[in-house]
Design brief:
Blueprint lengths: L1 E10 L2 E7 L4 E5 L6 H13 L8 H4 L6 E10 L2 E10 L2 E7 L2 E3 L11 E4 L11 H15 L1 H21 L5 H43 L6 E6 L7 H7 L1 H7 L10 E6 L2 E2 H4 L2 H23 L4 E5 L7 H9 L6 E5 L3 H5 L6 E6 L2 E3 L1
Parallel strand pairs: 3-13, 3-14, 8-12, 12-13
Antiparallel strand pairs: 1-2, 1-4, 4-5, 5-6, 6-7, 9-10, 10-11, 14-15
Length: 358
């Protein structure tokens, strides 16, 4: 699986852009704020329909324009495909696969598998739990369309329940909450089960990776920190209803899950050094690559957004040694360091003020 070509129109700081990638190592270099990350963002949107920066569609469209377009040509199992994403300020996005419009975003998931590694990911360990939930959700959505549907429906039900909690509460309104509770439990249990499986699979892979990175000195284990057990979800939701009514918010459910990272049985988020936290984050990304390979029996596409400058030489070596046979698109301010690392570069582009220079 690899991306052959990307074309942008009125996207961020690009009027028009057209770039052809090698199936090996691709370098996009240039000064900051020139548009390098915008290219990676467009690729990420092709796989997930969303910006990894969390921006709304209207914020991505070039200033002064009403619409934007992404066209991505990929090769998967030796068969070519085209993915078009049409962003519009005042309408929902339009998506087409091989020129055929799709009605559900879920139909796009799994067409290509993207793993993005950015400096922000190095902070996933010490940031808030929402970042760690997002890590689980974005990978699971790409690997399992049904998970995306369950997560999307769960979030809709959660919003409906929260809206109901904000209403004046009479006895008859409590019956409405019963309806939302039933659906919240139904979809929530499915999310919990899939996240549980995901963490177990990551643990099978990450242990050896982390031991290698630390020369056998550290053992890493991930704990899926459920906000509520699957067996206790219904009971806890019922017990917390009066509190939820007072706070006008749902306090129980997988929307409050977290991940704990234990290094030698110590919570690295609370007690680890910055170096340990970064090593755990790198182990997590390397394990993610191996997990995707195992599940889809193919290699994902790896996007490295200016992350090399944030890693020391040992961690950089570990990352570079893992990308053999994987299409990798790397952004950086200069590429001399990569040549020194004996990286076999296939294509190099300079990005300057929204222009791609060969």
């Amino acid at each position: 699986m690899f991306i052959e070509n990307l074309a942008l129109n009125n996207y961020r700081n690009y009027d028009n852009a057209d770039i052809t990638f090698s199936d090996g190592i691709n370098i996009l270099y240039g000064d900051n704020a020139q548009g390098k990350t915008n290219i990676l963002e467009a690729i990420y949107m092709t796989a997930t329909t969303k910006s990894h920066r969390g921006n709304k569609d209207k914020e991505i469209i070039k200033f002064g324009k009403d619409e934007s377009h992404i066209r991505t040509e990929i090769k998967k199992n030796d068969i070519g495909h085209r993915i078009d994403i049409h962003l519009r300020k005042n309408k929902s996005k339009g998506i087409a696969i091989d020129m055929i419009p799709i009605k559900r975003s879920a139909d796009l998931f799994g067409m290509i598998n993207i793993i993005l590694f950015s400096p922000e990911d190095l902070s996933i360990i010490k940031n808030g739990p929402s970042e760690r939930r997002r890590f689980m959700d974005m990978e699971l959505c790409q690997l399992n369309r049904l998970y995306y549907n369950n997560l999307s429906t769960y979030n809709k039900v959660l919003n409906q329940r929260n809206n109901q909690l904000k209403e004046d509460m009479y006895d008859k309104n409590r019956d409405i909450i019963d309806v939302w509770d039933s659906q919240l439990i139904d979809y929530g249990l499915k999310i919990i089960d899939e996240r549980d499986k995901f963490i177990n699979m990551i643990n099978e892979i990450i242990k050896d990776i982390h031991e290698h990175l630390t020369n056998g000195k550290e053992k890493l284990k991930l704990i899926y920190d459920k906000n509520v057990s699957r067996e206790g979800f219904a009971i806890e939701l019922c017990n917390k209803r009066d509190m939820d009514i007072r706070l006008m918010n749902t306090s129980v459910g997988p929307h409050r899950d977290d991940i704990i990272f234990l290094v030698n049985d110590i919570d690295v988020r609370k007690f680890g050094s910055q170096g340990q936290q970064r090593t755990v984050a790198l182990s997590l990304k390397l394990a993610e690559i191996e997990l995707v390979k195992k599940i889809i029996n193919d290699s994902p596409i790896l996007l490295l957004d200016d992350v090399m400058s944030e890693l020391d030489s040992n961690r950089r070596d570990a990352l570079l040694s893992s990308i053999s046979g994987i299409q990798t698109i790397i952004t950086c301010t200069g590429y001399d360091d990569f040549i020194k690392e004996r990286l076999s570069i296939d294509k190099i582009y300079k990005i300057e003020q929204g222009k791609i220079i060969v």
